[in-house]
Prior knowledge:
By secondary structure, chain A is of the alpha+beta class. Chain A is built from 2 helices and 9 strands; from the N terminus they run H-H-E-E-E-E-E-E-E-E-E. Chain A has a single domain, classed as SoxY domain (Immunoglobulin-like).
Amino acid sequence: xxxxxxxxxxxxxxxxxxxxxxxxxxxxxxxxxxxxxxxxxxxxxxxxxxxxxxxxxxxxxxxxxxxxxxxxxxxxxxxxxxxxxxxxxxxxxxxxxxxxxxxxxxxxxxxxxxxxxxxxxxxxxxxxxxxxxxxxxxxxxxxxxxxxxxxxxxxxxxx
Amino acid sequence: xxxxxxxxxxxxxxxxxxxxxxxxxxxxxxxxxxxxxxxxxxxxxxxxxxxxxxxxxxxxxxxxxxxxxxxxxxxxxxxxxxxxxxxxxxxxxxxxxxxxxxxxxx
Lengths: 159, 106
């Protein structure tokens, strides 16, 4: 038999967990699954099915975003950027935007440093993924979790 | 009116890594928005960007709907020799803008 006090604690806990999961994502679960599949397909297209390892890439995004219409994003990859060892491409993908692709940048040893900054649109609270393709054919990645309060492209599939 | 702004140092030391910032004036209409009557607004975005240093391509990017309006792209290059750097944006509905900047390398 639970006492009144215990019951209140449990009820409050359950309510706050429910609220937290709702705040996590505004996207309906079917749409979310479709978009995750689209993301996997886009990654496969960029990497050709090669193994993607974590590390060497640093993706910087603000963790809390007020306005998803313009979010500063920057990617930096650890690389000596010499003719024999450099970054060939940097791809950025999102998990829950209507289209997974964000930007694909192609660079070479003449870049000096493997960095890229831009501004992106984010439709929902989600994970952003950056993949770098090295000249030796290996792929490295980093991801960042962001919370979006006001989303871009509200009209499509949300709410 | 198509406009673009490019920022880079006017002079640099040989071998120095310089940062190039580019900004193109473009609404980047995603193709996912609707009018009040529910009609889909057709997509109108910049699809690609390329940068060439004295005619040799040093940076290229493919942009998608998820790039914010007035796309900003910042990247780096090694200042190898004096000359011109050309920038080219192209996109939907025949959008093309070319911009050039000169750099003096000492």
